[in-house]
Amino acid sequence: MRRLPRVLDVILSVGGVMLIVAALLPEMRPQQLGAVMVGALMIQAGVAKMSHLFFPDERRWLSARAEVEVFLTLMRQLNQAAIALREKDSPENRREFEELRDSMRAAVEQIAKVAGKTVERMAEEAGQPDAGTLWKNDFFGPPDGDAPLDPRD
Questions:
Q1: Which percentage of the chain shows pLDDT scores above 90?
Q2: Which domain holds residue 14?
Q3: Alpha-carbon distance 127 to 150, whole Å?
Q4: Under a CB-based contact definition with an 8 Å cutoff, are residues 85 and 93 in contact?
Q5: Distance of alpha carbon 13 from alpha carbon 40, whole angstroms
Q6: pLDDT higher than 50, residue 149
Q7: Measured between alpha carbons, how far is 138 from 129 in angstroms, rounded to an integer?
């Protein structure tokens, strides 16, 4: 449902430009018509915020962004749980609300942990696994069937 307003905005602006061009069409020379169409397409590109397609994504804090997305998802769930708790104050609804609140606290701690760190820096801090260990895990599996082999072995 969120895409509908965006699509409608583009359709309305394209329709408006086409209406203007159609009104001016009989009086225009081909060069003028071409200039109007290029200008209209540029306006449309600006309205549709298409400039980001021409430039690389320079986001550096992807891990923090991902953690904030998790937090927002938890916030939506907490709101639904609060509504359910208000409608029926039951132990199950209260437990769900409390669990979500605790999950949100943990999410805030995780956001604080990754704040200001690029993905590259987090990978450096975690260290690179040993290629031999990765090969053993891939082909032979972890020794006990659950835990992966220790890269320091």
A1: 28
A2: 3-54
A3: 13
A4: yes
A5: 9
A6: no
A7: 13
